[in-house]
Amino acid sequence: MSDQKSKSMLKPLLEFGPVVLFFVAYLKLKDEVFQIAGTEYSGFILVTAGFVPLMVISTLALWKLTGHLSKMQIATLVLVVVFGGLSIWFNDERFFKMKPTMIYLLFGGILVVGLMRGQSYLKVVMEEALPMQQEGWMILTRRLCLFFFGLAVLNEAIWRTQSEETWVYFKTFGLTAAMFAFFMAQSRVFQTYGIEKEE
């Protein structure tokens, strides 16, 4: 029982720890400029360079802990490595700032493909944790699809028009709060279409 409890405590630490560390490191290094091998790198790029391997390590640790990774987790890791790597390679923070846009467009696009086939791919991912009638899954999927596309547009608007620090706050807290608020707002769908698990 204690082993199960320690695993349940370690899981959110592995999931959210890298993001929190990215935020803390950025606050400390945001105004610094580093000279490495004759090239100047901003604090943002340096923090990104630390975040990418940390994300890889934490995801692998999460896989070892739980025995599996969701497709969303794998896709997120791939995009972090690709766009984070591009930012470091080209010394251009814009690539990393585009990462959330690509993630939400990808997830939204996958849900659209499922809807066009009359299916809810969201149900495949979340059915065990959230038993619900098919109609409820279709409603939730359509709403989440629009929500993802909305977040993609919002991320583009913020990183292109606001300061770097504003975007970091938005990425760290805004996106998480928005996701939490979205699912809280779906309580009526859960109540109407939810299926109680048998004991």
Distinct helical segment count? 8
Poorly predicted sequence stretches spanning 5 or more consecutive residues:
none
- How many angstroms separate the termini? 20 Å
Shape: globular
H/E topology pattern = HEEHHHHHHH
How do the strands of the widest beta sheet line up side by side? Answer: 1-2
Rounded Rg? 19 Å
Secondary structural class: mainly alpha
The total strand number stands at: 2
Query: What percentage of the residues does DSSP assign to strands (E)?
Result: under 5%
Structure description:
It is a single chain. With 199 residues, the protein is mainly alpha-helical. It has eight helices and two strands, in the order H-E-E-H-H-H-H-H-H-H. It has helices spanning 2-29, 43-66, 71-90, 94-116, 121-126, 134-161, 164-185, 187-193; strands at 33-36, 39-42. A two-stranded antiparallel sheet has the order 1-2. Strand 1 and strand 2 form a beta hairpin. The protein is globular. The mean pLDDT is 90.
Task: Give the gist of this structure.
By secondary structure, this protein is mainly α. It is 79% helix and 4% strand.
Secondary structure blueprint with pairings:
Layout: H1 2-29, E1 33-36, E2 39-42, H2 43-66, H3 71-90, H4 94-116, H5 121-126, H6 134-161, H7 164-185, H8 187-193
Helix pairs in contact: 1-2, 1-7, 2-3, 3-4, 4-6, 6-7, 6-8
